Structure prediction request, 1134 residues.
Amino acid sequence: MNAEKELTGKIFDIQGFSLQDGPGIRTTIFFKGCPLRCPWCHSPESQAFKSQLSFLAAKCVGTESCADACVKACPENAVEYGELKDGVKPGEKKQLIHVNREKCTECWKCADACYPKALSKCGTDYTLDEVVKIALRDKMFYEDTGGVTLSGGEVLSQPEFALELLKRLKEEGINTAVDTTGFVKWEVIESILPYTDLFLYDLKNMNSELHKAVIGVPCELILENAKKIAAAGGKLQIRIPFIPMFNDSEENLRLTGQFVKELGDAVTMIQLLPYHNLGSVKYTRIMDNPKIFEATPPSDKKVQWAKEILESYGIKVGIH
Amino acid sequence: MYEFSPVTERIQVLREKIRNRVIPVDSVRAVAITESYKRNDNKIPMIKRAYALKDVLEAMPLQVEEHELMVGSLGAEFCGSSIYPEWDGESWIPHYVEDGIYKKGEDGFYHTPKDDVGPLVFTEQTYRDLAGIKEFWKDHRATVPIREWQPQGFELFQALRMSSYTVEKDAITSPVGHLTPGHEKIIKVGYKALRDQAQNWIDEHEGDLMADNFSKNVFYSAVVIVCDAVTEYIKRYAMVCKDEAGKTVNEKRRNELLKMADSLEWISENPARNFWEACQAAVLYQLVLQLEAGYPALSFGRFDQYTWPFLKKDLKAGSITREDAQEIVDSVFLKLHSLYRVFPPIVTASTGVNTYYHTTIGGVDPETGEDASNPITFMVLESLGRLKLHDPTISLRVNSKTPDKIWECALATSKLVGGLPLFQNDDVIIPSLQKEVGFELKDARDYSLIGCQEIVGSGNDFPAPNGYNPPHCSIHYGTVLAMALNDGKNPVNGVQSPIHTGFLYEMNSIEDVKEAFEKIARYGLHWLVSMNNYTEYLSQWIISHPLLSISMEGCMESGKDIVQGGCKYNSFGGTATGLATIVDSLSAIKYMCFDNKKCTTRELYDALMANWEGYEPLRQQILNEVPHYGNGDPEVDRFMTWVQELYVRLCSECSSARSKKYKSGLYGATDHINQGYRTWATPDGRKFGEPIADAASPAQGRDRNGPAAIFKSACCFDHHKYMNGMALNIRMHPSVMSNDEGTAKLRDVTKNYFKNGGLEVQYNVIDSATLKEAQKNPEEYKDLVVRIAGFSAYFVDLNTDQQNDIISRHENMI
Prediction:
């Protein structure tokens, strides 16, 4: 028991009333850390496995208002004065701060001192009990279809915590879904299969070379695991992030459609997730000079076109 | 997705005319009632009121507008409006002219400033007439006796400013109103049968008026006068339609006008024969009641229920098509929207143009308890959605048997017109009306909504949900808290109440704080209800309502006016808006001072007294670290349970001569903003002047975990106790409803909330970017409708503070 109590997972967000991470009303638990590096990622804070210091300028009240709380708290002098921003009243200026990430040792003292929580630690170690308690908060709204979704980052990069959490949720009678890249050893997936009601499973590109060139890993393992899940009786909801100039060709859509069709009844539906750039603002919170993916979000017409191609394989397709 | 039907051309034309109208306000009613009061000055009040209505109706010029299917205007012209000197005196209009605010244009008419909400236009004669009646009404208004004498101790209560109730201005600014008249009875019985019933009683008792028969005689005599007056008035409308037909070349329209004339002639005395007549009879009754007294929050009742039998018959007979019926329903709601009583800009700036003709649809059959939604239920939602009509407010009654199709249509409507409809839960309300207010089952099943949110019986209940002084129905609980932490003294003006609670820095536990709060709250509420009872006492002999009483079950039977307790059901009540501010404050005191010792009670007290000046780090810590209400956190929610139970208990201590039941409510329209202006800084980090939380919702921006968490928190107290109604506002980003799946999920979460005891919810589907854009370019966003706790308004019609308040509310993004 003691050992189990000490098991923790690194979580960067827990979101109630999620409507689009699986069926029904769900609570989504976001695991931190991912082996993939998708350039369009809208949750950059999900990528690193370690906790990160996040600075949200919009929340900063200015160092005059907090009497330099963070600047004084930092033992490394890593919190410096940054830009001057317009205050609420005309002519009023707010002195914002800037984190010198070279000097920062991630001791979180500035985050503890920051009253408005403009500085915060992104990524918290949760025990199973803590996560389960939060997941149960909305239980009355889950009903038959809703439940809890584990998402990320890559959930299965923290396999032990994910497995134990899923077991606990099933003990509570809660429907479970796991949002995964599929880029993980089969044994890990096999272990969680009995406790996972649905996989939200990404298929980003059928061309392995392109997959590797852009995301950093090939796609064979991902495709192989999908087949194994289907063969083992698991349920899959396929998710396709629809990215301009990467996977929006007719050829790729048709290959994907054919592959999904062959997975048979295991697939509940395909979710087409058109690229959007709302995530770009998140990068600067955790790093200086980020490299931001720039593309024009696909038109509704183009998304509809893609939907129809996929539907021609006899699969239900939703756009989210 | 639910598909709305197209709008016919004539309705589109009328809609544009009404939406873009400048309201012609005139002095016809004001002059007529002044002359009538002068002539009848020495008659007993009830007879005087009956003659006043007769004289007003006779004086009103009538007209039928091109394209119109429903007749009626509250003023001398199409979309016109009247002045009510028996409440308003000469009104604000002459003062605004004299102060140069309303200026005469090149057209020779007076105009309101460009940015006024609900623009008015009036003539030189109207100005002179209104200025001319000033002297008479100075001493003839209903409010005069209260201004002249008050009970012992009142002066101190007033000075404390724990509520907006003062006698310096007007204690009675309108009749009580706030009820659902018996439209169904008027439609099904007609004025002649009601008149005959009264006349027969008088004949039978001539010269033999023993016991309380004398007062009945007075009541029935007034009934005869008002029924005759209304019959004559409607007959004149028939003449107008006939005359107009004579001048009309288009044959189709000519026949239509002749048909309208025939029907108007018929319903001036008799029960309606078909759907059109039922609708017009209901609209005209609404209109004559408004002309009689300008009732606030006069509801239009369960329109889809009382008109459906007529439409069903017409459809069966093949005398009408569904398209025709939709056009009639569209006409009804456009007409209702235009029967608008004008208010001074200080009122409209915060409420927008609102008639408060709250209309209820859906729900169950009173006899069988089965779901009673019908084609008209859809038609009303269609009118709202297609015409983008934010007013009248529509409540949809839902229950476990409500068809999915209704949900779908209603949520699609929400998306088009802000927070309409409001969703009201039959499964909580019906049993509670029986238990809490003593309704019979069939009457409980027939409930309707009025005003902002209040739950009332239909045509059988004098519910006075905001007491007898409608604008002053709430104690400011934020002020109660500020006083409780300051030895019973209001920090805003330094006035000391008779209750000494000690100071925050003398309190040793959260229990001490709660005890202090309870003492001050009791003092305040007891005083407020006492003053309500003064107004009730006064109303019973000077402000009777015979025209309203004829349709209310119990009054004709007992020969008693509604103000004398003639209705089958009698109750009254009030509301406590924004208790989340109290809860967050208690949570802050406990977390900061007692549990975690992050500051001392002395420091917090000093910060409060300084209105947080110089204490920004402390304030930020409270805003960001302290657990707040609305996040499904049981620790904080426990304070909500406590304060709600306290409020309900305090209400149960109140009663009046007419009613033992003082109902509890959690709503307040925009009152949270007004209360905020007068409420000192609170421990939750709120500064002096900022809004308190609104209605039953979490404090603005303090809920961070989405609607499921809000619902969870909201279920921490028993909604069955709030038979005065409650409002839970939830802002929704439009993307929640961007596809069928999202809409279905929203429906399911709402159903689930209701299954868990939720009473009411309304969704504001809007995003902040849109709102900010709308602030900058109001012209482009004329159609943007938002709902503020209990009523909806055009966003661009609100003042900047309210616009900002809406924007600052946390968006429940997916």
Q: What stands out?
A: DSSP finds 13 helices and 13 strands in chain A.
